[in-house]
Amino acid sequence: MTVTELAAKLELRPLTPQVTPSTEQVTGGYVSDLLSDVLANAPRGGVLVTVQVHLNVIAVAVHAELAGVIFALDRVPDESVRAKAVAEGIPLYTTKESAFDVAGRLYEFGLRGPRA
Amino acid sequence: MKQFLADLHIHTALSPCAAEDMTPPAIVQAALDSGLAMIAICDHNSAGNTAATQAAAGDRLCALAGMELTTAEEVHVLGLFPDAARASAAAAEVVATLPQADAAYYERFGPQQLMGADGRVLGFERRMLAVASTFELSAAIALIHRHDGVAVAAHVNRPSFSVVSQLGMFPPDAGFDAIEVFSAPGFPSRAAEFAGHGLAVLSSSDSHFLGDVGSACSVFEMRAPTFEELRLAMRGADGRAVRCA
Ligand SMILES: [Zn+2]
Ligand SMILES: [Zn+2]
What we know:
The complex is a heterodimer.
Chain A: H1 3-9, E1 13-14, E2 29-31, H2 35-41, E3 47-50, H3 56-63, E4 68-71, H4 79-88, E5 92-94, H5 99-108
Parallel strand pairs in A: 2-3, 3-4, 4-5
Antiparallel strand pairs in A: 1-5
Chain B: E1 2-10, H1 24-33, E2 38-41, H2 50-57, E3 62-70, E4 76-81, H3 84-95, H4 103-109, E5 113-115, E6 121-124, H5 137-146, E7 150-153, H6 163-167, E8 178-182, H7 191-195, E9 200-204, E10 218-222, H8 227-235, E11 241-244
Parallel strand pairs in B: 1-2, 2-3, 7-8, 8-9
Antiparallel strand pairs in B: 1-10, 3-4, 4-7, 5-6, 10-11
Helix pairs in contact in B: 1-2
């Protein structure tokens, strides 16, 4: 499944419509609000589910080569963060669901964490 | 220029998890015994014991009024202020965002004692100082600057509640005035690595217990142990300097 297919299935609201997401298959998922943890453990080509909206989310997503970031609980990062995501080509989404529920649905779709 | 030893991160009994004998006079005495010329009182999300510690210190020691603010990202940021009034004004904005403490909270985190200069208990802070404020990092630094303080990234080398643990990497344009590394035997300070950000690097004890006061400190080269001199030393102005001891 690509990021775009996944976003449609989960009915995520796109925050960066200017970004064309990767057409590669999403490799896995990760849930964390600690960006040091994301840097160390998120799977390359995976999606991150978080409530962390600081600008560093984008820098970390680039380093970790994430396919996209899903903000839970209707979190929406500032315009400056979204602009940085557009510049870096990282698609951002938000959803009213909790990180737990988003992760559960990603798991149902067959995505796994880095150590599964 | 003269050299002054400073331990700029000390908690009082007001902080949840700090020892109850961390009273203003006991901290001042411990600092003098350690040869410090300067300390900063930095309780979690509060400046409620800063004026008392300054009164306890008199002219024996410079006791700066500070606060250790917990941001919404759970990053610890030290604010050091020119006086207790401005520290308290900044802290009032922070504490207003915290939930009211209940009996279960006090049982777990302790009584959050507000004290006088003689160490007597005058009252108890009623908000949960142990939790995160709603200030995001950039707003927290702006708050500190608005009250004429300097903002220090606290214990950046620690694996929790540091700007690096929470945000993955040091944010270069966040507006910090200095970086603090935590120093303890066997714990890597990584001071040289953090010096690469072009900001003053401090070493502090983050004392929660009397025996830790002065166990780590910074050396300030400046004219006198005052807040204004400290601010200039952090910028390296006119031959002033600061380094980890
Ligand atoms: Zn701390
Ligand atoms: Zn502390």
